[in-house]
Amino acid sequence: MQHHSHTRCPPSTSSSMDPFRPVSVSLRTPADGRASREADIISAYSHSIDTHSTGSGTRTIHAHQPQSRPRPPRPDEVPITASSSSPLPRPRTRLRSRQQPLSTLLPSFIFTFLLLLLCNTRSTNAEDPGLFGPDQLFTSSVAYCSPPEAILVSSLGLRFFRENGTLEFDIAAASVNNNVSARAAVSVNAYGLGIFNVNLDLCTIANGILCPLPTYNFNGGGVFPVPPQFASKIPTIAFKIPDLEAVATVQLIDQNDRIVACLQATLSNGHTTYQKAAIWGTVGLALLAAGSSFLHSAIPASVGAAQWRIVDVMVAIQHVAVVSLLSLTYPVAFTSYASNFAWSIGMINIAPVQSSITSTRRKTGGLQVGTFGNALEADGGRKYDPFLPRRSLVEWTPESFTMAERSSFHPQSLLKRISEDDPASLLREIHFDEHAVVTPLNKTFLGSLPGRLLAVERIYAPNTGPNGQLLQASEGGPLPLIDPNRTTEEGIDLFAERFDIEPANVFLTVLINYVILFGFMLAALTAIYVLVRFFSKILAPPNWAQRLVKWDQFGGSYVTAFIGRYLLITFPILLLFAFYQWRFGDSWVPDLLAAIAIAVFLAGLATFFIPMFVHARRSGKEELYYPEDLPPAEAGRVPKVWGSFAHPWKPKFYWAYLLFLLWSVIRACFIAFGTHHGFRQSVGLLAFELVLFLILCIFRPSRNGAGNCVTILLCLSRVISWGICVAFTHEANVKTIPRVVVGFVLVVATGIPIILLLLLTIVDLFSPLRPRKLRTIKRMNRKRAEREAKAVEEKEKEKESTAEPASPASS
Predict the structure, then answer these.
(1) Residue 3: how many CA atoms within 13 Å on its side-chain side?
(2) 661 vs 424, which has greater pLDDT?
(3) SS3 158
(4) Which of 42, 259, 493, 785 is most exposed, with minimal Cβ within 10 Å?
(5) How far apart are CA 550 and CA 552, in angstroms?
(6) Contact at 8 Å (CB) between 241 and 441?
(7) 792 in a domain, yes or no?
(8) Angle, in degrees to the nearest 10, between helices 276-297 and 736-766
(9) Predicted TM-score of the model (pTM)
(10) Which subcellular locations apply to this protein (predicted)?
(11) Which of these, 234, 248, 473, 480, lies nearest to 376 by C-alpha position?
């Protein structure tokens, strides 16, 4: 987890801790006689307040902390402050309510929680708190789940600290219709389990202040203590598990049983498997493998698997991202983890490039758009049990709460007991038992929840940034509206939208990024050659460095080989997205460029394979390999240029990379053309990968045992990962919590091969220093010296033989 230098601490409830954050409340109402409502709301929490009129039809309420260092309030105190544009001086006072038990604030908490959810999140601090940071839960995104009719909301910040059991909030909302009386259906759901469900009649709260709904703006914030019997119900793992899957839904239903407002808020604890450190770690591994490959290309005794390790590393890294492209219901933890590897498949968002691609598509018939932001992480059926059936709203009746063993009552019956003359009477009347518990909701009741609360489809709450932080396009902008009856497609579309890339832009994005990569590779090779040439003029280069100094050998041994490795790394991914473009593209320009790009890549591969087959047929398969007693620098052109693709394999299977290309074509067909059919994709890929695994086990095509072991283990990891993907299909019907566990198993299954290749790459870097390698190099140098000495002797003999016939003539 990433640690930040400025980690937000929870509000303190002890006098030895930081000052308590004040509550900010600003009530602005037209001067139409509703000023009494303001006082009623405040009087529900306090008995002392100062007000004044600004003379502009707006009434503002002020109360401030004293100038001295404030102390943390007790749970029965609620400090309130407000900002105002009034030129009059602000009175300063401390508000103190009557001494009440902590549990008596439950109705206030429910009322506040309701208002919190009816707003757009401006996360108070959504940065990753770190593994050892404070345990907290906060809203990561909020969206309308139905068109707003009676309530307009603009902003919200909600944060619960477990350490001291406080709830911190900031809200802004308003009503636009007159004479709207409503009841609220509140549901909190985590991993498909109903944690909290309640039906509230707003007319029974605070002497009917919210009945009908007020038409003035409400802007406020504060900190409230949460009763321990409710705070203790949140398990410890909810504060630590990465990518928490929890959501709260609020529906306001009028007297005609019509939904006038519906809001959905996703919850987060700040922890996620998407980490910048993991991204740069895999990039570093790729660069390390590329350097090792270049180094082994310059060592006489090193040919074969070590030079092509970069291909193994990149294929393993790409596999994690490719797995997430299937149309499956993945846990959020895995999709966030797979996002760390998106760079390997060219999914990099460069803003000017995206603008150019989108403009080109729009001018050539492209009309598709996407839903952007990492809110897709908090979007869909991850926050629900995706396999629960739809139900109608009228079927939902909240379960009763059981207080210890003394009585059972309906939450709405509590609200009706509020005295009309004293809105705070409930605070004094109701005393919860210290050991009171809430009866958990049973499975039958969960199955009867409305389809808008537990949707089969993935319902997104867009505009959330990294680690759950809201992306604020414009201050005070409207909330996004989601459709609970619309299925948001998974697979390539979803993966691209997580990086703010329109699905129709995917192919051109990948193509351009791979072209940029090709340019960087050529520039790096050119820079290396120039540097080596420069230092060769100063220092006497060793014998093995001749492959770097001479351009003909450098171009044949390095440039050609690295172009071949580049093609093997990029062609499978480019082919996948080309198939996707032809299947779902909306513009003729990307379709044409996809055809041209695939043709160019196939031509590049043909320039390697066709000469290789020709030379193998004319001179034999061994002609493609370096002689055992001859350094690569002294070998012929065939093994240097056209035999590079055969070096990792036995002479009998010199064509083995063709099998790799065939594998990439089949994989691309299943993923691109099988979109929207996750079961077919996962089962088909599993079957094909299993066949490939058996072929590798039977024929063992690598040149040595270590190469065969690595190849088979990498294939086995892919078999396991495709097998795990079957569990994420709707046909498997795996429930939510087991599905999350399986998701972490998939993280391990795809991560182990990368760790294995990291160790192998490190071993490759030091393998030339092993005694066996050194002995091989010495043996090659000794044989080369013997060949040179023998060549000198033959030249001397030729000179002597030419000089002997001249002696008789002279006599």
Answers:
(1) 5
(2) 661
(3) strand
(4) 785
(5) 6
(6) no
(7) no
(8) 30
(9) 0.70
(10) Membrane
(11) 480
**Maximum average pLDDT range among 147-151, 447-451, 545-549, 672-676:** 672-676
Residue 548 has pLDDT above 90, yes or no: no
Helices (H), 298-350: 309-323, 332-339
Same domain, 156 and 177: yes
Q: Are 314 and 727 in contact (CB under 8 A)?
A: no
Question: How far is the C-alpha of 494 from the C-alpha of 313, rounded, in Å?
Answer: 25
By CB atoms closer than 10 A (0-12, 13-18, 19+), residue 338 is buried
CA distance 413 to 400: 10
Q: What distance in Å separates the CA atoms of residue 549 and residue 432, rounded to the nearest whole number?
A: 85
Q: In whole angstroms, what is the distance from residue 386 CA to residue 388 CA?
A: 6
CA 675, CA 669: separation in Å to the nearest integer? 10
Residue 144's SS3 state is strand
Q: Are 452 and 262 in contact (CB under 8 A)?
A: yes
Number of compact structural domains in the chain: 2
Cβ neighbors of 751 (< 8 A, separation 6 or more) are 320
| Length of the chain, in residues | 811
Residues 526 and 646 in one domain: yes
Chain-centroid distance of CA 701 in Å reads 37
Looking at residue 36, its pLDDT comes to 41
Same domain, 234 and 297: no
Residues 6+ apart with CB under 8 A from 63: 46, 49, 50, 79, 80, 81, 82, 91, 93, 95
Domain assignment of residue 532, given as a range: 276-371+492-771
Mark whether 550 and 609 lie in a shared domain. yes
**540-548 long-range contacts, CB within 8 A, separation 24+:** 543/631, 543/633, 543/781, 543/784, 544/298, 544/299, 544/300, 544/631, 544/633, 545/298, 546/633, 547/297, 547/298, 547/632, 547/633, 548/298
| Count of other CB atoms within 10 angstroms of residue 204 | 20
DSSP classification of residue 705 = H
